[in-house]
Design brief:
511 residues, alpha/beta, Rossmann fold, Hect, E3 ligase catalytic domain fold, three-stranded mixed β-sheet, 18% strand
Length: 511
């Protein structure tokens, strides 16, 4: 007797709004006779998902004919990427498995069905871009109107689109018999930081003061299982030990991490300003910019500190960062923003470093969620082992990467701006000659020459980069001879993320 398998996915926001959202999907699959269930709590734009990858791996080793259907509620539950969808569909076809969408009647084997799928995936991508466009437009509007954001940092709340101090009571300390309102506690945090001058030390003081344990409990499971059986759905806990991961104070405790505390300390809201454009998009998702790159509207409300105090805090944080890596040519981290934990999906960062007696520098990477108790990846991976493993993977993928590089001469296409300028110039040529027209024509000719010069230089740089990349992936010695700056520049052009589990590099995902 053949089985039916089920794949369910919800976004983290959807699951936060309704804690039974994923469970409802799984129960629908159970009601139609599915026996094995795979699940994810991630955005549809995220292509690397543990549950989906586990499903694909199990399908590849499956005996043909043992499973008849793979059931989803809708096509977009798989994702909005056509490449991802059809790669899964190819595996299903090789095993003779039919894809069934409960809320959509689609025959994936017919030409009309494939057209419908393409339309649905395109509509899903369009919806994502429209939502992003609306959010961006609203942020620009609020920036022009000098309004606050929807969410306020710790110590503040938003009333009538303006930041006001949060006067509600927050915590009482037995030591000293002192009670704090929320904004008073925020101000106290700045006092602690000023006294010790270090974000990490401030975290230790605050966490000890508030009775927050920084130790992680040992977890016997190294990786969360994203496959469950039909009989286990009712008892299955989707959020063991971290049910409030996506929530903020006051629904969570007063635990602080060094990175979170730094973002809190440099937030201009405390000094009467409203920050904008604090994040940037990257292949691995949105990331917070350095605070020196933030835009800010000042004097939008009354702060709890002066501008000078705010600037002094930023100078202290800059100085700490400089002192940590001063006089080290290895200051450049070639793997910055690329390393991801294979167990929890968190980022890996440099936790410590040392120099041996020969002056050789070694950095140690660890999952940032380990110190917060959200991941059990205790092992640290040293930079030498990391570099060697990545080099081996790059060399093993040399043929695949080389096939992506086109050695053929780029067919020259005149830039659109140049064509438009030439049309404007042709229109001016028809006018009666006078000094103003001649001056305008000379200006257009200068613009055309400038754009063509930039375009030619860009094309040359592109060809040089291609040759360099192909040489690197064919020769291990070439990679070993590169500087940290060279490695960072090259990896950022080709690699989306590097997945690490403990001391082992599991794989590299290319752009």
């Amino acid at each position: 007797m053949t089985e039916k398998w089920f794949y369910g996915r919800v976004s983290s926001l959807e699951q936060q709004e309704d804690r039974n959202a994923l469970k409802k999907q799984l129960e629908r699959g159970k009601n139609i006779g599915c026996s094995c269930f795979y699940w994810d709590i991630q955005s549809r734009t995220t292509e690397v998902r543990n549950g989906l990858q586990q499903l694909i791996d199990d399908l590849k080793i499956l005996v043909k004919g043992s499973v008849s259907d793979l059931v989803v509620t809708r096509i977009d539950r798989i994702g909005s990427s056509s490449k991802l969808f059809y790669s899964l569909l190819e595996v299903l076809r090789s095993k003779g498995i039919k894809l069934v969408a409960l809320d959509q009647t689609i025959d994936t084997e017919s030409l009309g069905g494939e057209l419908t799928i393409d339309i649905l995936l395109a509509a899903s991508k369009f919806e994502i871009k429209m939502l992003s466009s609306r959010v961006s437009a609203e942020r620009k509007h609020r920036m022009v109107q000098r309004k606050s954001h929807r969410f306020a940092p710790f110590g503040w709340k938003v009333i009538d689109d303006s930041y006001v101090k949060d006067e509600s009571w927050c915590v009482s300390l037995l030591n000293g018999k002192r009670s704090f309102r929320v904004w008073e506690l925020a101000l106290f945090i700045f006092e602690v930081f000023e006294s010790c001058g270090s974000a990490r030390k401030t975290c230790n003081i605050l966490n000890e003061m508030f009775g927050v344990c920084g130790k992680v409990e040992k977890n016997t499971k190294s990786k969360r299982n994203h496959r469950i059986m039909s009989d286990d759905i009712e008892q299955f806990d989707l959020f063991p030990n971290h049910k409030k991961t996506y929530q903020r104070y006051p629904w969570t405790g007063l635990q602080w991490s060094p990175a979170g505390l730094k973002n809190f300390l440099v937030n201009p809201v405390h000094a009467g300003g409203t920050p904008f454009n604090v994040t940037t998009s990257s292949p691995s998702g949105k990331q917070i910019k350095h605070f020196d790159q933030w835009d800010c509207n000042w004097d939008t409300h009354h702060g709890i500190m002066t501008r000078e105090q705010h600037e002094q805090i930023k100078r202290t944080i800059r100085g700490n960062r400089h002192n940590k890596w001063v006089a080290r040519k290895e200051d450049i981290n070639p793997f910055a923003n690329l390393l991801k934990c294979g167990r929890c999906g968190g980022a890996l960062t440099r936790m410590s470093s040392r120099c041996d007696r020969f002056g050789a520098y070694t950095a140690y990477y660890q999952c940032t969620y380990y110190s917060l108790g959200r991941c059990d990846a205790k092992e640290m991976l040293n930079s030498r082992s990391l570099d060697a493993q990545i080099a081996d993977l790059l060399v093993s993928e040399a043929s695949k990467l080389a096939s992506k590089v086109d050695f053929a001469e780029d067919k020259y296409l005149e830039p659109t701006e140049v064509r438009e300028l030439r049309e404007s110039l042709a229109g001016l040529e028809k006018l009666t000659t006078n000094p103003f027209v001649e001056k305008a024509k000379d200006g257009i000719r200068d613009q055309i020459a400038s754009i063509l010069s930039l375009h030619e230089n860009s094309t040359k740089r592109s060809l040089l980069i291609r040759e360099e990349l192909v040489q690197m992936f064919r020769d291990r010695e070439y990679w070993d001879s590169r500087t940290s700056d060279d490695k960072k520049r090259i990896l950022n052009k080709l690699v989306r993320r590097i997945v690490v589990d403990g001391r082992v590099v599991l794989g590299i995902e290319f752009l």
